[in-house]
């Protein structure tokens, strides 16, 4: 899963979709489908593991919200989708939309994104979710890694500043501590995975600017808040 990449050739932490790259608005991804996906996720996550969810009440009950999630394991996205208090539309790399999984992901309101370019369709779909007061899920690091928010792309700042939606930091902890003996790509069955939601915050500086400099400054502010939340989540959970 990933956020929208920016201009090819720019440093990863400075990439951001250009304003002129956004096409005309179109249909909003299905929130009903995302709710179906949330219910499926609830069953799977609580059936296979033991999620411990902390701070879910911090997610605003209505209005546009961006969930910024650390990413160290493939199960992180489905885990957040299942335990979040509202149906969530995640930006998911196009490589996952293969075979029967593609129609399924689209049916549950998830958004396909091409990480190799400024994906106009993904940008439009993500902004449509926020415009209609929905929840957008983003892995701001762009790909799986250490899950420490050490290197952010600017896509998160772009969506937050352009839409005015608050960002809720989300830390998923425990998904990579051990591998299952049955399926090594997954955490052990019935193991505990912690999902910690933080306080919502605004990414912009209040000026409404959407220049490259404004997005770079917003990315720095976002990284500071996400890193602080992750450190607090580790202290809170002991992980």
UniProtKB/TrEMBL annotation:
A GO term for molecular function: 1-acylglycerol-3-phosphate O-acyltransferase activity
Q: Under the cellular component aspect of Gene Ontology, which terms does the record hold?
A: plasma membrane
Segments forming a coiled coil: none
Task: Give the residue ranges for region: Disordered.
Answer: 1-30
UniProt cross-references to InterPro entries, sorted A to Z = Plipid/glycerol_acylTrfase (IPR002123)
Keyword terms of this UniProt record: Acyltransferase, Transferase
BP-aspect Gene Ontology terms:
phosphatidic acid biosynthetic process
Q: Which CDD domains match?
A: LPLAT_AGPAT-like (cd07989)
Q: Determine if Transferase is one of this entry's keywords.
A: yes
Residue ranges of domain Phospholipid/glycerol acyltransferase in the record? 65-175
Protein name, please?
Putative 1-acyl-sn-glycerol-3-phosphate acyltransferase
Q: Which organism is it from?
A: Streptomyces aurantiacus JA 4570
């Amino acid at each position: 899963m990933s956020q929208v990449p920016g201009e090819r050739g720019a440093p990863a932490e400075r990439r951001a979709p250009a304003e002129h790259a956004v096409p005309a608005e179109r249909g909003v991804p299905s929130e009903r489908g995302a709710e179906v996906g949330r219910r499926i996720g609830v069953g799977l996550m609580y059936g296979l593991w033991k999620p411990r969810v902390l701070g879910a009440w911090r997610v605003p009950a209505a209005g546009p919200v961006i969930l910024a999630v650390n990413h160290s394991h493939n199960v992180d996205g489905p885990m957040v989708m299942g335990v979040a208090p509202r149906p969530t539309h995640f930006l998911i790399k196009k490589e996952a939309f293969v075979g029967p999984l593609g129609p399924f992901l689209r049916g549950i309101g998830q958004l396909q994104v091409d990480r190799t370019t400024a994906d106009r369709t993904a940008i439009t779909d993500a902004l449509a979710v926020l415009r209609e007061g929905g929840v957008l899920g983003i892995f701001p690091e762009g790909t799986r890694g250490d899950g420490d928010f050490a290197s952010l792309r600017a896509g998160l700042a772009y969506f937050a500043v352009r839409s005015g939606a608050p960002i809720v930091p989300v830390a998923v902890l425990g998904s990579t501590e051990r591998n299952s003996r049955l399926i090594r790509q997954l955490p052990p069955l019935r193991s505990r995975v912690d999902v910690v939601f933080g306080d919502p915050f605004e990414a912009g500086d209040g000026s409404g600017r959407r220049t490259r400099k404004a997005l770079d400054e917003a990315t720095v502010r976002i990284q500071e808040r996400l890193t602080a939340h992750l450190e607090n989540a580790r202290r809170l959970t002991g992980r």
